[in-house]
Design goal:
With 150 residues, this protein is α+β, with helices and mostly antiparallel strands. Helices cover 21% and strands 21% of the residues. Strands 2-3-5 form a 3-stranded antiparallel beta sheet. A two-stranded antiparallel sheet has the order 1-4. Strands 6-7 form a two-stranded antiparallel sheet. It is elongated. The model is unreliable at 139-150 (pLDDT under 50). The structure holds iron/sulfur cluster (SF4) (2 copies). One iron/sulfur cluster (SF4) binds next to α3.
């Protein structure tokens, strides 16, 4: 009995340290780690592609008035699957290396983004301008993240 325990102890000691020093020492995630989702509000042009593929319903798109599309992000639902990053044509939405996402402030888990769009002449619904130049010259660009973090 004693000998078997001693043998176990020796095996454990031989293995050396197998745990990480985190949180007492910084921890760098490995490449490809899917962490907190960030949105570059200057790049997003409101196409809604990310909302279409998001399996968790994090991103809700609504056209609240002609020329204005609102994107709402409910981060608490995110499963970090990375689909939104895959489809975004502007690389505006990305998964970062940040993994410390705990918060006691509900507003941190919500983000609202308003984007000026081009209204359809027939139905009046918003649509993204066909080119970046059109977007800048005709519709302008406006966005806001009211509180919260990307
Ligand atoms: S990572 Fe997945 S779950 Fe999270 S916002 Fe993107 S598509 Fe939705
Ligand atoms: S984040 Fe990308 S995919 Fe989502 S609405 Fe903006 S431009 Fe489109």
């Amino acid at each position: 009995m004693f000998l078997s325990k001693l043998r176990e102890a020796l095996i454990c000691l031989k293995a050396g340290r197998v745990t990480l020093g985190y949180p007492f020492t910084p921890h760098e995630p490995k490449p490809g780690f899917r962490g907190k989702v960030t949105v570059d509000t200057d790049l997003c042009f409101g196409c809604g592609g990310c909302a279409n593929v998001c399996p968790a319903g994090v991103i809700v798109v609504s056209d609240q008035e002609p020329r204005q599309r609102v994107l709402e992000f409910y981060w608490a639902r995110c499963t970090y699957c990375g689909k939104c990053e895959e489809v975004c044509p502007e690389k505006a939405i990305r998964l970062s290396q940040q993994f410390e996402t705990a918060t006691d402030t509900p507003q941190d888990m919500y983000m609202r983004l308003e984007v000026l769009m081009g209204p359809c002449q027939r139905c009046g619904r918003c649509f993204p301008p066909p080119t970046v130049l059109d977007r800048m010259m005709k519709t302008g660009f406006r966005n806001s993240s009211e509180g919260g973090r990307a």
